[in-house]
Amino acid sequence: MINNDRLFLITGATGKTGVGTVELLLERGHRVRALVHREDERSRALAKAGAEIAVGDLRDVGTVSEAVRGVTGAYLCYPILPGLIEATTCFAKAATDAGVRSVVGMSQISARPEAGSDAARQHWMSERLLDTTDLLTAHLRPTFFAEWLPLWWEVRDGEGHLRLPFGEGRHAPIAAADQSYVIAALLLDPEPYDRAVLTLHGPAEMDHYAIADVMTRTLGVPVHYEPISVEEFASAMAARGMDAHRVQHLSNAAVDYRNGVFSGTNDNVERIGGRPPLSVEQFVNEHKHDFDTSGPHYVPAS
Ligand SMILES: NC(=O)c1ccc[n+]([C@@H]2O[C@H](COP(=O)([O-])OP(=O)(O)OC[C@H]3O[C@@H](n4cnc5c(N)ncnc54)[C@H](OP(=O)(O)O)[C@@H]3O)[C@@H](O)[C@H]2O)c1
Fold this sequence. Notes:
Number of domains: 2
Distance between the termini: 36 Å
Helix content: 40-55%
Oligomer: single chain
Number of strands: 10
Radius of gyration: 19 Å
CATH topology of the largest domain: Rossmann fold
Strand order of the largest sheet: 3-2-1-4-5-6-9
Order of helices and strands: EHEHEHEHEHEHEEHEHEHHHH
Structural class: alpha/beta
Shape: globular
Bound molecules: NADP nicotinamide-adenine-dinucleotide phosphate
Strand content: 15-25%
C-alpha cells in the first residue's frame, strides 16, 4: 500500500547508493521521485519499480526546483566531478523555497577544510552550506566503498592483482547497499540526526594484503596486493582517460589513506540502518560475477 503523506527525492538515483535507497523506500510503501541524469535502462528500471522519474542536471536550479516540489525529505548525492558546490547551492536554494523538511547529504570521510583533494574540500564546504539552511540535515562520510574492489581488479595469467597506492594503510570497506539502509532510515526519521556527521564503515578494518587474502579464498584464484607509488597511480589513471578532477582527488585520497584518514569502524550502519554491514568476504561472494577472471582487465574506478 502506498504511503501518500510523504514524498522522498533521491538524487544520483541511478548511482551506487541511490538505486538501493529508491528500492528500499518503495518496498516500504513510500512515494519516491528519482532524479536521474539521463533516461536509460537504469532509469527505466526505477520507473518499473514504481518511482516517479525526474530527469536533469543537479547544477541547474530550474531542474532542481521542479524536482523538489512537494518533497518531504531528499538524498543529495553528486559524483566525483566538478560542480558539487553548484549542485549543493541549487539544492539548498530550491529546497528552502519549496519547504523541504530534511536532507541527507553524501560526503566522504576525508572531507575537511585542509584536505589536499579538491573534491574532499568541496564536500566539507557543501556540508557547511547545507548547515546554513533550516532543513534537518545529516551528513554521511563513508570510507572507501567495497565496490572499489572489482573496479581496480586486474587479471594477468589467471591471477588477480590489486595495484594500489595504499601502502599498509587500513580501512573497513563499506558496501553501497548497506549505506542505502542508513540513508532510508535517516530520511524516514531525520530529527535525531539533525547536523550529525556520520562516518560509515564496514565491519572490519583491513589492509590490502588482508583484503587480497580474502579475495583469494572467496574467488578461488590467487590475488596479490602490489603497493605502488601515488605518482604511478596518478599516471595510470591519466593514461586510462580519467578526468583531471578525479585523478587529483584519488591521488590525494591515497595520501590521506596512508595517513589513516580512511581507517576506523563503528556501529553506525547497524544502529541506524538496522542491519549489520557486509564483510569483504560476503561482498565478494555476492559480487563474484563482477570479478572477470578471463583476461587482462582494468577499469578505472568511479
Ligand atoms: N566510491 C567511494 O569509495 C566513495 C567513498 C566515500 C564517498 N563517496 C562519495 O559518494 C558519492 C557518489 O555516490 P555513488 O557512488 O552512490 O554515486 P555514483 O555511483 O558515482 O553515481 C552518481 C550518480 O549521479 C548522477 N549524476 C552525474 N552527474 C550528475 C549531474 N550533473 N546531475 C545529476 N545527476 C548526476 C549519475 O548519473 P549518470 O551515470 O547518468 O551520469 C549517477 O546516477 C560521491 O560524492 C563520493 O564522494 C564515494
